[in-house]
């Protein structure tokens, strides 16, 4: 209805209409702070206190994903392989990565450069 009255007002600019538009209320922010609570990210991103981009964190927490990929991949134990060379494609298909070959000749764990999965050569010598 208000839109109709505004259209009439614009088309008949020499006439004044009494419109009953709602008065917008003043919204106050309680406990507003320009200093967001800084949460540490895996890249240790920090903003300068004078950075304008900090305005997006006023009255909102800085959302940080606690499941960092480096910690999630550490939860997967290294996989023993009988071969000297192992191929890793990260699961294959659209969820994987290009196939890489990892040499397991040296002792210890060997990680894939793309996904971080670890492999080691199991010894068959008793």
UniProtKB/TrEMBL annotation:
<protein>
    <recommendedName>
        <fullName>NADH dehydrogenase [ubiquinone] iron-sulfur protein 6, mitochondrial</fullName>
    </recommendedName>
</protein>
<dbReference type="Pfam" id="PF10276">
    <property type="entry name" value="zf-CHCC"/>
</dbReference>
<keyword id="KW-0472">Membrane</keyword>
<keyword id="KW-0813">Transport</keyword>
<keyword id="KW-0809">Transit peptide</keyword>
<comment type="function">
    <text>Accessory subunit of the mitochondrial membrane respiratory chain NADH dehydrogenase (Complex I), that is believed not to be involved in catalysis. Complex I functions in the transfer of electrons from NADH to the respiratory chain. The immediate electron acceptor for the enzyme is believed to be ubiquinone.</text>
</comment>
<keyword id="KW-0249">Electron transport</keyword>
<dbReference type="InterPro" id="IPR016668">
    <property type="entry name" value="NDUFS6"/>
</dbReference>
<dbReference type="GO" id="GO:0006120">
    <property type="term" value="P:mitochondrial electron transport, NADH to ubiquinone"/>
</dbReference>
<feature type="domain" description="Zinc finger CHCC-type">
    <location>
        <begin position="84"/>
        <end position="119"/>
    </location>
</feature>
<dbReference type="InterPro" id="IPR019401">
    <property type="entry name" value="Znf_CHCC"/>
</dbReference>
<keyword id="KW-0999">Mitochondrion inner membrane</keyword>
<dbReference type="GO" id="GO:0005743">
    <property type="term" value="C:mitochondrial inner membrane"/>
</dbReference>
<comment type="similarity">
    <text>Belongs to the complex I NDUFS6 subunit family.</text>
</comment>
<keyword id="KW-0496">Mitochondrion</keyword>
<keyword id="KW-0679">Respiratory chain</keyword>
């Amino acid at each position: 209805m208000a839109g109709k009255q505004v259209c009439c007002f614009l088309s008949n600019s020499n006439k004044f209409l009494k419109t009953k538009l709602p008065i917008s209320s003043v919204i106050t922010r309680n406990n507003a702070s320009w200093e967001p609570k800084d949460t540490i990210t895996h890249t240790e991103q920090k903003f300068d206190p004078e950075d304008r981009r900090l305005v997006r964190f006023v009255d909102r927490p800085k959302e940080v994903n606690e499941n960092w990929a480096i910690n999630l991949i550490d939860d997967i134990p290294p996989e023993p392989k009988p071969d000297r060379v192992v191929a890793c494609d990260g699961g294959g298909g659209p969820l994987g990565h290009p196939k890489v070959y990892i040499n397991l000749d040296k002792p210890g764990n060997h990680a894939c450069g793309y996904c971080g999965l670890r492999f080691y050569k199991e010894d068959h010598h008793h």
